[in-house]
User: Which sequence fits this backbone?
């Protein structure tokens, strides 16, 4: 709670033309934006270019931006749009993109399992199996899980980023979790019996 | 009905649902944990700072541009003068061969300032402020992308000979992609002159200092690297040329393919040619006109372009010279004899100079002290 308040005053100061607030915004959010961008493309120069353009735009339109926003959500959404546009341009130039998707799909995940999460070998196997299943989910479902669990966004925000309706968003996440449970419950039960 | 489903779903996620079996709850919990662990990469600190500089520079230059557009007539006159100037130079340049024209261009440019500079045929000077700059010539040769931020356009006259010069001062590096796709890593303290556009007959560049070339193969259009004392002819290959004016010898190290060196090029008695094979290093001493070719580990001479130095047999003198160019700091030896001490090791050029000096000093049991812009290395008087 407190954190968002601090962020919002920072944002408000920025929209009122405070240069140091602009610098702090960059300082605080460039890493998150970078790591977010890496989910959609491995081209880190492209990501940096998009972050660059995003901050130039922010600076341009700062007077016209809403004062009350979820800053992180707003920035992620804007970057996602920039990445899509850049991708579309690139695919037009290389003449591969006549019937390619409008949006960049999310890449498969690489998980970094922390040490404390791994109790024993069973636990590791279970997580490994789960990781595999997550990566086999359809792109859109995986993307929602990512936005939800990694960035703590709510359904309205996720829907806005992915340009889908809120009910669709709920359906997707419901299906994703159901599929994971369906595939893995038996594994969990087996391991529970063995141990 | 719909609402009930929503609630249930939210309960799933908050891991508080009683409807779920312990296994199911565990799965959702673990999914959340795994997803949380996905890529929390950080922008490397240097890149983060660079990107911020790019953003602030662009915001600044936008302001300047709006200010400048108030005087379009003034600009137009300046541009006309610049073009006339370019045509004039082109005309004179046409009358001599490319090599000496480029050499003259290089000599006419005085090293100035601490920033890397690109000097166009029309004498426009473009400052590149980064430590490691990148320049990419588009295929037509007219547009040059700088540091993936700005694009500079140059007018290409019909005259064949107008040149661009890249001036890289001590402490800076540049990575250049020419219009034919040839890639050149230019090391600190170097000048590279090349035509604004290559002709259909030959691709020629002139180098003072050090550069690593990855030449794009083009059938029947050879690539020449001219230096003060040697000429390197290639068809498509990778090699390093080091031709610093303050070094007594000129060197070429061949990584791939084959190249031919021409030495004594100014001698009336005729020049001599020599083919090189990969994995060898040629050293030419203009004083006694001797060309030596030895087998070497090419990494030792080419690793600088990737940001580190791998040193196997290098004398301290050489290493200090290279480091002082790279960091633009004077490095001295308290005792001349130390110069021939061999150093073996791996130096990461991302480290600061004091860190690197620490490593060198420690592994040779030397002491050093630092004054404002120089380091002095001395023998350790206390034996361990």
Assistant:
């Amino acid at each position: 709670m407190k954190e968002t308040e601090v962020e919002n005053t920072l944002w408000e100061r920025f929209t009122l033309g405070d240069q140091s607030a602009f610098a702090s915004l960059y300082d605080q959010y460039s890493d998150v934006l970078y790591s977010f961008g890496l989910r959609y493309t491995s081209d880190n120069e492209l990501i940096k270019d998009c972050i660059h353009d995003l901050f130039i735009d922010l600076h341009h339109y700062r007077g016209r931006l809403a004062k009350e926003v979820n800053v992180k959500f707003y920035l992620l959404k804007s970057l996602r749009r920039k990445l899509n546009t850049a991708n579309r341009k690139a695919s037009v130039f290389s003449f591969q993109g006549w019937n390619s998707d409008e949006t960049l799909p999310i890449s498969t995940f690489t998980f970094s399992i922390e040490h404390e999460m791994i109790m024993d070998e069973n636990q590791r196997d279970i997580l490994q199996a789960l990781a595999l299943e997550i990566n086999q989910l359809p792109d859109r479902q995986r993307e929602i899980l990512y936005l939800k669990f990694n960035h703590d966004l709510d359904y309205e925000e996720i829907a806005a980023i992915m340009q889908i309706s809120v009910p669709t968003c709920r359906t997707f996440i419901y299906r994703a979790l159901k599929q994971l449970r369906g595939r893995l419950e038996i594994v969990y039960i087996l391991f529970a019996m063995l141990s | 009905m719909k609402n009930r489903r929503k609630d249930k779903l939210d309960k799933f996620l908050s891991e508080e649902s009683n409807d779920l079996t312990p296994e199911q709850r565990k799965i959702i919990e673990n999914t959340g944990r795994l997803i949380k662990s996905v890529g929390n990469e950080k922008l490397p600190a240097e890149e983060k700072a660079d990107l911020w500089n790019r953003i602030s520079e662009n915001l600044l230059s936008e302001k300047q541009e709006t200010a400048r557009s108030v005087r379009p007539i003034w600009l137009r006159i300046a541009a006309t003068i610049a073009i006339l100037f370019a045509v004039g130079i082109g005309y004179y340049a046409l009358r001599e061969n490319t090599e000496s024209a480029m050499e003259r261009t290089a000599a006419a440019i005085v090293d100035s300032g601490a920033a890397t500079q690109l000097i166009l045929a029309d004498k426009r000077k473009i400052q590149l402020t980064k430590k490691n700059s990148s320049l990419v010539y588009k295929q037509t040769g007219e547009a040059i992308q700088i540091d993936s931020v700005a694009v500079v356009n140059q007018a290409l006259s019909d005259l064949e000979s107008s040149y661009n010069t890249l001036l890289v001062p001590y402490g800076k590096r540049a990575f250049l992609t020419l219009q034919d796709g040839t890639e050149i890593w230019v090391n600190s303290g170097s000048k590279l002159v090349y035509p604004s556009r290559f002709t259909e007959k030959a691709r020629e560049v002139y180098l003072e200092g050090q550069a690593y070339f990855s030449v794009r193969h083009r059938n029947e259009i050879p690539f020449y690297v001219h230096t003060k004392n040697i000429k390197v002819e290639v068809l498509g290959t990778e090699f390093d040329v080091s031709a610093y004016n303050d070094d007594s010898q000129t060197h070429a190290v061949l990584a791939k393919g084959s190249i031919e060196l021409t030495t004594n090029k100014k001698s009336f008695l005729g020049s001599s040619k020599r083919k090189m094979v990969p994995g060898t290093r040629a050293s030419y001493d203009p004083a006694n006109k001797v060309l030596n070719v030895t087998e070497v580990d090419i990494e030792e001479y080419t690793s600088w372009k990737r940001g580190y130095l791998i040193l196997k047999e290098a004398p301290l003198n050489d290493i200090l010279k290279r480091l002082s160019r790279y960091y633009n700091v004077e490095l001295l030896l308290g005792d001349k004899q130390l110069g021939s001490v061999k150093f073996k090791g791996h130096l990461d050029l991302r480290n600061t100079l004091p860190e690197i000096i620490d490593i060198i000093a420690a592994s040779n049991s030397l002491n050093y002290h630092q004054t404002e812009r120089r380091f002095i290395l001395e023998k350790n008087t206390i034996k361990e």
